[in-house]
Amino acid sequence: MEYSILIVEDDQTLxxxxxxxxxxKKFEALVCHSAEEALELLKTHHPDVVLTDNSLPGMNxxxxxxHIHSSDPQLKVIMMTGFxxxxxxxxxxxxxxxxxxxxxxxxxxxxxxxxxxxAAQRMEYQLSxxxxxxxxxxxxxxxxxxxxxxxxxxxxxxxxxxxxxxxTDTDLPSVLxxxxxxxxxxxxxxxxxxxxxxxxxxxxxxxxxxxxxxxLEAELFGHEKGAFTDAKERRIGLVEAADGGSLxxxxxGEMDLALQAKLxxxxxxxxxxxxxxxxxxxxxxxIISATNRNLEQMVEExxxxxxxxxxxxxxxxxxxxxxxxxxxxxxxxxxxxxxxSKRYGKSGLTxxxxxxxxxxxxxxxxxxxxxxxxxxxxxxxxxxxxxxxNQLAIQPVAAPVYHESVSFTERExxxxxxxxxxxxxxxxxxxxxxxxxxxxxxxxxxxRDMLRYRIERLGLIRPER
Length: 465
Description:
By secondary structure, the chain is of the alpha/beta class. The protein contains 19 helices and 14 strands. The strands form four sheets. Strands 2-1-3-4-5 form a five-stranded parallel sheet, with helices on both faces. It has a five-stranded parallel sheet with strand order 7-8-11-6-12. Strands 9-10 form a two-stranded antiparallel sheet. Helix 2 runs parallel beside helix 3 (61-71) and helix 10 packs across helix 12. The model is unreliable at 397-404 (pLDDT under 50).
């Protein structure tokens, strides 16, 4: 017996017929002949679905549904009502019924409706599980790190959340989270939501680079049936789904100019219009966006709207790269080692001293995401209790190469911070070539793309002539 159904029906013949049919279909089926009897049974028995008639001796079905919904809102109830009594069905759904059937009951239709009801229930349970899991793994407490950069990020979040808790209206400021790929921008966005005043409302996340540009508008704003060739039914967009909560737009710099205009309108008017609709809908949500691109540079190049940039960046949070976080690297490495050890049933794993030295010296172009993935591979493949350097899928870091044509001051030559040495070397090389990226990359012995990545990661801007 996979699922349990409670049948509340005073017509004994009908109740027995439904019970026999459901048992044939591998359901457990119990029968009550009154609402009072059902409520008493529900104190000790927990069915998956209640199937009830409305016309019962004593308390009627609508009142029974009201009692069930107030004590157990997750329990699904289906109302059976006489043909033509649609008003009763509507009333039943208003007080908490999931659906209704008209009599005479067609057993095949009942089976289909039960399958639909149980599927909806499973979906709700799964959603509840994931929401609970997300809350547990989100928030400020989930942001590991004691480096100055991370402490500044946490302090900014706390100050913002404290200010928002005292706001007299619900129009929370937009937040732009900036940082390299893999630094944990999503974690910052979740902390803003989970620890904020909208924590009980939806948190909808969308990566603007995940689908083609021509489909992005429908995904965000929804569409009406027939709005375009494949619009076979009405569909709400992610903006409407986030109503009351937070919408997190990751990689917002990938959005094209046409859609940027629509996003700007949403930010200014708090209204949307589905594709193919003439009706504007009022929306109350908080927009959090993130990017690994230099939006200010894109504004100067004309590929990102200046007005949208300033509307998105009312509050700016910059997430530091992993290579600049010092001892946070080992803190996170040990956390991921423990996490993956539990996952793969390999308790007691530790790093050798050489492995820890390599982890700290590596420049981590993929940041925290790269660290997590490398350690998962190491845990998965290790046969020993100690992780050594050759088990980490990274190359030992060579000492920085100073090109003979680039001179350093005495103080710079004694700089021991590897990221700062890299910064000095890149700046000096760029200045020597008058910021010619091709020539600078050739001098440094790297590709143009690698140099452009470093320029963006280090936040370097060509000085005015």
